[in-house]
Amino acid sequence: MDFANLASQLNAGTILPEGIVIVTLLGVLIVDLILGRTSSRWIGYLAIAGLLASVVALLFEWENINPISFGGAFNGDDLSIVFRALIALTAAVTILMSIRYIEQSGTALAEFIAILLTATLGGMFLSGASELVMIFISLECLSISSYLLTGYTKRDPRSNEAALKYLLIGASSTAVFLYGVSLLYGLSGGETELSAIASEIAISGFGQSLGLVIALVFVIAGIGFKISAAPFHQWTPDVYEGAPTPVIAFLSVGSKAAGFALAIRLLTTAFPLVADEWKFVFTALAVLSMILGNVVALAQTSMKRMLAYSSIGQAGFVMIGLVAGTQAGYASMVFYLLVYLFMNLCGFTCVILFSLRTGTDQIVEYSGLYHKDPLLTLGLSISLLSLGGIPPLAGFFGKIYLFWAGWQAGLYWLVLLGLVTTVVSIYYYIRVVRMMVVKETHEMSEVVKNYPEVSWNLPGYRPLQVGLIATLVATSIAGILSNPIFTLANNSIAHTSILQPTAVVTTQVSAMNNQ
């Protein structure tokens, strides 16, 4: 093979955004090695600049006529571009909220950012991976980095406990997922590319075999862990409570987005012959997640644990679009994850600010906060109301698009359950808002009474202010701009060949013609 053919097969320009993140990662490590602790004041901005440059590079790849690279191992189509940009933006906002938090914990900032960028790389590659080895390596890159980030504050026993629990459950889920993809490899006769696996299984007549069903169940178990869907959610509450708050902010959006990107690509490409079966399983997961996440959140006293169960419920809502399996369903998933990025990270930024100033995250301690910190109260109120789906905020339109896509697909009772659990979720979100806003001065908690004077000039607080205002503005105007954002989401699905109805039919017809 000559060099020209090799270069055309590699098509390495497709991963230019990931290349920028790799260069940024190396730059962070080199700068920290040369300058030491003195670089911590601006090393975070270097990482954010690299991530934003990566997002810009992704924009230039939109509607790429040749998205396949590395011999079919990576697909840089528009679907992957949206998810890769979402993960990179999540990492950028996470770094903004991490600088002060990590400095106050007494640990090194450069190493934290380096591990976070590694997790970002894993998520970005996972969003476009279309080959089994690529999927597994990307998944492990994201998972191992997440374990390290969870236990990063080594002096905190809760962080160590959360990391150990996350590691044990995560390793088990990875083993189950790996066994599932190894069954796929065997059933397809040694194929690793997802489209080739589907074709070979159809040709071999294993389309309705028990082995393919077992592989499907194991693969869904691994995906369910990444998106924290019930009953694979056992790690979520403890990890959310014990891990550093910026880490769970990244996991709640970045890791979840990567998991849904993997679910869409793997299930639609490798399992088209058992589509009814995997839709049935995800219907059950959606039901369990919406009921358990929203009902158990009612009883939580810790803000971080409440947001943990909230994220389980949110995963249930997003799965409605996956179960619908239509272009509108996938587009509504992408739209909801895009707005979920801003409203969820806005909420976590407020939780970090409150914990840095008071040292607690108990919900009752937020009583009367409006009198002492109006900006933080506004940010947390807008984000919680948006998560609950209150109009005219972004979360309302996200849920409307998801429920409408499910209704069009005939998922009537699943949509009705989603509406009921949304009403339940509004209760525990508004409870926090009411506690902050309605309480009078004499009803303030002791923590709020002793609330320090709000100052953004303290070291590390300026990035938090930038992150809070940016996510608050994005959450506020995303509802107004919901139509162009949904158009973007819809175009990302319309320009992705694997999600077109003709793609599955073509695969099955070609397989039958080869028999």
UniProtKB/TrEMBL annotation:
Q: Where in the cell is it found?
A: Cellular thylakoid membrane; Endomembrane system; Membrane
Q: How does it sit in the membrane?
A: Multi-pass membrane protein
**Record bears the keyword NADP:** yes
Which GO biological process entries does UniProt record here? ATP synthesis coupled electron transport; photosynthesis, light reaction
The regions listed as transmembrane in this protein's record are 15-35, 42-61, 81-102, 109-126, 132-152, 164-185, 205-225, 246-268, 280-299, 306-324, 330-354, 375-404, 410-430
User: What GO annotations for molecular function exist for this entry?
Assistant: NADH dehydrogenase (ubiquinone) activity; oxidoreductase activity, acting on NAD(P)H, quinone or similar compound as acceptor; quinone binding
Q: What is its main location?
A: membrane
| Tagged with keyword Transport | yes
List the GO terms this entry assigns under cellular component, sorted alphabetically.
endomembrane system; plasma membrane-derived thylakoid membrane
EC nos: 7.1.1.-
UniProt KW keywords: Membrane, NAD, NADP, Plastoquinone, Quinone, Thylakoid, Translocase, Transmembrane, Transmembrane helix, Transport
| Quaternary structure (record) | NDH-1 can be composed of about 15 different subunits; different subcomplexes with different compositions have been identified which probably have different functions.
In terms of NCBIfam families, this protein maps to:
NDH_I_N, PRK02504.1
- Listed HAMAP family: NDH1_NuoN_1
Q: What is this protein identified as?
A: NAD(P)H-quinone oxidoreductase subunit 2
The organism of origin for this protein: Brasilonema sennae CENA114
Organism ancestry: Bacteria, Bacillati, Cyanobacteriota, Cyanophyceae, Nostocales
**Gene label:** ndhB
